[in-house]
Amino acid sequence: MAKFPDNFLWGGATSAAQCEGGRCEDGKGLSHLDYVYYRGEKAFCNFMLQNDYNYAREHESELNFPNRRGIDFYHRYKEDIALLAEMGFKSFRMSVSWTRLFPTGLEETPDPKGVEFYHNVFRELRANGIEPMVTMIHYELPIIFVDRYNGWISPEVIPHCFRYLKFLIDEYKDEVKYWLTFNEINMVTAVPFLGGGILLDRDGDIAAGGPPGKPGTALPPELIHRWDNLAHQALHHQFIASAMIVKYAHENAPQCMIGNMFNLHHLYPETPSPNDAFRAHEETEFNMFFCDVMAKGYYPEWILSYYRKNDIDIKWYEGYEKILSEGKVDFISLSYYLSSIVTSDPERQERIGSFIRRMSNPYLETSEFGWQIDPTALRISLNELRDRFNLPIYIVENGIGAFEKPDEEGKIHDDYRISYLRSHIKAIAEAIGDGVKVIGYTPWGCIDLVSCSLVSMSKRYGFVYVDADDFGNGTYERSRKDSFYWYKKVIASNGEDLD
Which of 10, 166, 279, 439 gives the lowest tally of CB atoms within 10 Å of its CB? Predict the structure, then answer.
């Protein structure tokens, strides 16, 4: 197994929406994620249609909104950073909340209390020898842009976003070296509300006697076509905003490095059939085109052909080709959790770009949430990214979610997490031995936080347990899991001691 570079950035990752809390405190405004409500222990919550959103607004006083609480990082950040430092973190990936700085998104100047909060966090990290990595937009969109423009499908969002992004660079460029523009930018095409604040209509979506949005309900073809058009239009505007701030940072903060961030999804053909192989190729090209635009600075011909074939009509932003070419990122960053298999069979074929698939790979283990565990696919994909882009790669999310409760002694023995992370760290080391320039690794949810898919505390990823449940009950006290001590040893040995 190859050795990790001496300056490798070991750490962990969170997002403001899922851990910060402090809803409306010190002037903070609301984002669209503040209206995603809890629907049960295993209910996927972030796929919201217009009726879901209307229901959340109309029943706001009755519903449970876990993102508004987070894990109270807003008040406990010094305690949490001390735990990260105890593990030996070299890097901490976090995000800044747009609405903590610009509460409605329309303000010309930021809220000073929000400005100072992030200065305090960055100072605390650096005082503990931890390099902050900041995601500028981790899905969060001020709610006014959902109500006024239906999210990112309108170019009117771009100037407001750029004002916010420009402020981040101007204000924090001497405290933050590593930046990411949009978190998992490809998720706007997979989950339009989550990734872009986009609301779709569907007649009869409200279930009798209960809230809308029944999980697993198939969407009609006409809604899927509308989804594709709106999602790719929103994606285009996000590409523009990203390229604009990359160019600005290169000119005004050359000491900073700015990367993209996408959800890496490795896909195998179901059989050796040439048709299945070609379908896997198509899916892979779709997954990679998000990086193509941000790292190469142009739309590849493949996706333009896909738009023509599928009647996707993009209203191109004026001068977009020049904007994209001048705003190429400095490195590739990615989240990786699972691989999937695809088929060319039209009766079983799933929508291109889907994140969670129904088909199962018989050669892989599966987590209790149905996510298949495949470290080899990470190594394969890292090699593919090396050959395609020849840029440094930062793995900024990886991990396994599980239901966890302390035992009689108050301990959590998460051997399954250690096993998952060990196998993926080995795969990263093997990729480094293959010649891939991997510069850092920050597993997701290093401190338990509100999960994205379930909008709950029940699904946990962290090395640190937070005593809070899905309804905000608990002391919110932190405690160390077995994986805490294991990861501390991994970092201290620079990835050599994985036992």
Answer: 166
